[in-house]
Each structure stands twice: as structure tokens, then as C-alpha cells.
């Protein structure tokens, strides 16, 4: 079953308190995505642990028909330095 950018964004933001997610369907097929996730929950955590947090939020989707997810995780401070708007 193909997914929408909205479904991935919602799953991430619902699964990680105060997270902001930017999600792009890279092929338009609903199974290849890029996601940038910004969350204070990543503070002090390794990239591996940050990605685990996102994967837990997307557990059902990852176990489904999601073929590829390019993931970038950022703390709010790192996101500001990278030029993302952090509310």
C-alpha cells in the first residue's frame, strides 16, 4: 500500500513529542521518501539513537510497503544552523 507524505509526517509528529517533520515523496510512488525530523528529544543522543526514535514512531509503516527512507535528524539548534525554521 503506498503512503502519503502527510501520513509519514503525522506518524512522526504524533510519535515524537514536539517534533517537526518535513517529508518528501522522492519518486511519487508512495514508497520512497526523504524526511528531515527536528526534535528536542534528539538532544544528547547519537545519530543511531535518533534514527531509532524515528523508526519507533514509524514502526507500522516501516513494517509495511515502505521501500526507502532517507532520514536526517536534527536538534532544534542544529536545524536553525542548517536554515530550517524552528517554531
Q: Please state the structural category.
A: alpha+beta
Number of helices: 4
Q: Let me know the average pLDDT.
A: 92
Head-to-tail CA distance between termini? 33 Å
Tell me the fraction of residues in β-strands, as a range.
15-25%
Q: Can you tell me the residue ranges where pLDDT is under 50 for at least 5 consecutive residues?
A: none
Shape: globular
CATH level-two architecture: 2-Layer Sandwich
* CATH 4th-level superfamily: BolA-like
Strand order of the largest sheet: 1-2-3
**How many structural domains does the protein architecture include?**
1
What's the level 1 CATH class?
A: Alpha Beta
Helical content, roughly? 25-40%
The third-level CATH topology is GMP Synthetase, Chain A, domain 3
Give, in order, the helices and strands: HEEHHEH
Number of strands: 3
Give a quick account of the main beta sheet: strands, pairing sense, barrel closure. Answer: 3 strands, mixed
Rg calc: 12 Å
Describe the structure.
A hairpin with a 6-residue loop joins strand 1 (20-25) and strand 2 (32-38). The mean pLDDT is 92. With 87 residues, this protein is α+β, with helices and mostly antiparallel strands. Helix content is 37%, strand content 23%. It has one domain (5-81): 2-Layer Sandwich (GMP Synthetase, Chain A, domain 3), CATH 3.30.300.90.
Amino acid at each position: 500500500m503506498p503512503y502519503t507524505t502527510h501520513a509519514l509526517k503525522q506518524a512522526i509528529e504524533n510519535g515524537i513529542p514536539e517534533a517537526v517533520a518535513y517529508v518528501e515523496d522522492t519518486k511519487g510512488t508512495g514508497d520512497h521518501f526523504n524526511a528531515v525530523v527536528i526534535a528536542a528529544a534528539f538532544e544528547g543522543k547519537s545519530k543511531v539513537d535518533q534514527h531509532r526514535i524515528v523508526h519507533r514512531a514509524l514502526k507500522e509503516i516501516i513494517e509495511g510497503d515502505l521501500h526507502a527512507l532517507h532520514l536526517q535528524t536534527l536538534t532544534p539548534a542544529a536545524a536553525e544552523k542548517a536554515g530550517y525554521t524552528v517554531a
